[in-house]
Amino acid sequence: MTRLFLLLSALVALLAPLAPAHAQPLRLQITEGVIEPMPFAMPAFVPENSAGAQYSDALARVVAANLTNTGLFREVPRDAHIARVSSFDASVSFSDWRAINVQALITGAVEVSGNRMTVKFRLFDVLSGQQMGQGMQFAGSTDSWRRMAHKVSDAVYSRITGEEGYFDSRVVFVSESGPRGNRTKRLAIMDQDGENVQMLTDGRALVIAPRVAPGGERAVYTTYETGAPRIALMNLATGQRQLVGDIPGAMTFSPRFSPDGQSLVFSAARGGNTDLFRLNLGSGQMQQLTSSSSIATSPSFSPDGRNITFESDRSGTSQIYVMPATGGEARRISFGQGRYGTPVWSPRGDLIAFTKSHAGRFHIGVMRTDGSEERLLTASFLDEGPTWAPNGRVIMFTREAQGGDPALYSVDISGRNLRRVPTPGPASDPAWGPLLP
Amino acid sequence: MTLFSKTLLVVAALALAACNNPRGGGTFGGGGADGFGGMHDGGIQSGSLGDPNDPNSIAHFQQRIGDRVFFTTDSSSLSEEGRATLNAQARWLTANPQFSIVIEGHADERGTREYNVALGELRANAAMQYLISQGIRADRLRTVSFGKDRPVEACPEQRCWDVNRRAVTVVSRGRTS
Questions:
Q1: How far apart are CA A148 and CA A155, in angstroms?
Q2: Which of A16, A90, A137, A380 could be cross-linked to A25 through a Cys-Cys bond (beta carbons 3.0 to 4.6 Å apart)?
Q3: How does pLDDT run across A83-104, given as a tens digit for each residue?
Q4: What is the pLDDT of residue B7?
């Protein structure tokens, strides 16, 4: 779809009254950062039967929270609404919404039958008085009511921004407890908004740095269950897992999936040297990708599978390199002051996110894949380990305040909208999974 | 609460939405219980440290010989002091051949997690190679890196980071696994 007509919402607000009736004024440009969030209204979903009533408010709350949390939208609260939406199919009284400066109106309906539910929504551009796109319907189990609200949110976000959404996605992370010197770390999974947390490991073994497979059905991480770092592959639906990538005499860690999910790239350390290896998960075939007498770790595939970016100290300090996915000559791309690590290729292919430390501060940043246009998005005592939202517009990472516990934070790629992602306790090493089908 | 693999969402557009672009493949469900047995990391091993006045005791090794050496930031080079400690360790290990040795490498918290795993291995290996150069048989030695995940001091200050950048020689009776 074309993004030629992406405009800042502030501009939209100015220009819209002058625009022809057929224009699509409800557009937000994400990359530039939005200074003035777009006001929207999300009345309670209309219950289409009595059993649907218990979800009518909850669905609206989840949609409104999703949109608000992007920083791109601002909810006009319900007590300011003039019009009452009592029927999903009734005509919209746009003047009542214009009067309270709503630009985007979302209406919804919900019907529940047993443990099945049907959720519908429509999106309206209040200024032009038109519906934006067709209405949509989602049907599924009442257990997945939040997912349906996420689907509605994704559709609304997508229509207004021209970008794919990311609300119906999950995040694997490390849940921490206990004293800092002897932390219990458990692999866990949650919805992107911090809901539905489930523990995936029991905490007996230290675990670090998970990654989610491109399809979302598996995760890979480093575990100390044998006493030393080893790579585990877990089926997220069943909880079954196996150790993979054994190299005798080596510690193996830092695993990442290839974009087709068929292979892993990871680090193996032995004899005072850490190199990158590639493992074909189907055949078990292993290939050594680097052979430098220095550290090579934190690899990440480009989304086309042709290149790998990684961190190495071969120049004397940690810097970011790019090499062909089959190995071969690596090109350094980071040249700013300080140390660079944990490069992660954007799912859109356009940017590499990284951790940078300089002058006692840590930053999450992004640069183009040739190292140009470096942009630091955060600064704190300790920020590290970026992971991309499936649409490549938001980054989640670990932040540890000085003397505090680690927590998960998100920030958009313009550096705006820094916010803490709620978790039940201390948390680290987020790995954002794909948009769910 | 939900296993998403079991809750197939049917997306039925009232009319086809042109910009809906679902990605293919796979479910992304929650996991079951942790079923692996035989984990060592959280297990408790018990054994007597002995009397530090007994020159052949583990307590003597830890307290009198010194079981750890320290490193400067981002470095795995052994200091003069570190080499002196390792010389004493080597003499003790030669006199006590019944002990096997695991060298744990650690980093401070001022680096990224996985780089620190690699750095810890580098430090553990530096200590191990030095002990080998002092005549300790390689098959008695093993290394493990904990990166920054097992700090000995947890304060967010230089004095703690200085003692966390370390290689610790852990001795136990019996063979290395």
A1: 11
A2: A16
A3: 999 999 999 999 999 999 999 9
A4: 35
